[in-house]
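Troubleshooting log. The previous structure file for this entry was overwritten by mistake, so regenerating from the original sequence record. Sequence copied from the archived sheet and checked twice against the printout by T.R.
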Amino acid sequence: MTSRCVNLFVLVIAGILCVGSASLAWAGAVYNVSGNFGTTLFTGPLNGGTFSGSFIATLPISSGVQSITTFDIKLYDSSANLLADLTNTTAGDFANVRILSTNCWNGTSTGSCDAFLFSNAVATDFLELITPVGFVGGAVVPFNTSLPTTYNGSFGAIGGDTTSTDSIVTSGAITAVPEPSSLTLFGSGLFGIGSLIRRKIRR
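Regenerated output below.
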């Protein structure tokens, strides 16, 4: 193999490794949360409102309950008024992700699911997001009014867990935020591969 071929080969491998490393780090530990509350069934103060925020966690979880110690989740009504700010900087507020093993709608069947809970100290203002088990990011499971299971999907409440305070989640997502180092690696990999392509075109 000539020296030129060796250099090209090294460049391609370096580019692939950089892109691959970036994709591995892409999941990260920081997650954004966003979604919408519905206007049917349980409406409550959040009727037609939205939720948004972020948290830090190690996903997926394999068993039990994992505390989420850094989080900031805001619940808004349909007029964009902030009704609750659930955050680890407010005394008593708490959050966790746990595996529910039975009576849970996981998006495809009744069975196990992951449940993310963000709550104030007395669990009267909260957001619970149901996801498929082994969740590492993506859409949450909306509340399904036709299911007779215990955990029908995602919902939130302002003022308590009753039909007069609950609001169902109609859509939502938990998405991983790329780490700055991941973006750098990804860019370096693409630059290397792009350089190789430009050299071939020139020849």
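Residues 29-177 form one domain. Archived copy saved in two places this time.
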